[in-house]
Structure prediction request, 187 residues.
Amino acid sequence: MMHTPLTLLLGVFLLVGLAACGGADGSEASSDDADAARPAVDVTAAETPEAVGEAIGTIYVTALRETAEALDDRPDPAVATQRLQQNKARYVEQLVALGRKVEAMSPAERSTVESAVQQVQSGLRYDADLKPIWADYQAVQQHYLDTGGANDATFWKLLQSFNIITQYAFFDLLRQQAPDEAERLGV
Prediction:
């Protein structure tokens, strides 16, 4: 089944909305720990190239949204680093699981996945419903640039890494752009 760009974005909105509400039944999680343990998407359910691409896009959007939310109070870089490390580990785990599926795909299937992810990335900059997520993430980065937080190299690298976190689902990119990470993850 082929998905149009509109259905891909609608799928992302639905998944992001469900994540924001706490689950498909609309119930909210009872604690912050439950939110942290809940995956952004059901990685195991993503079987087709379209579904894998949608899942990667959803994780990307969720990662940017949750990064901005985690730093909404603009903590100092040391506190911010602690908050972001846990979130990033969760996203990396999900993206690597999806990356294993991408790795097994034909070039045509992989192209379908890449196209779906690119649609979401473009949507963050141009789609009225997604632009606020991108704007909030950019505002966080700008705050730390303006206040000297970028001088903390560990924090700054971590914060910026969320913008390219989808590389964890594309092992050739990860091997090229972050060989130490690829080695650490065994990909």
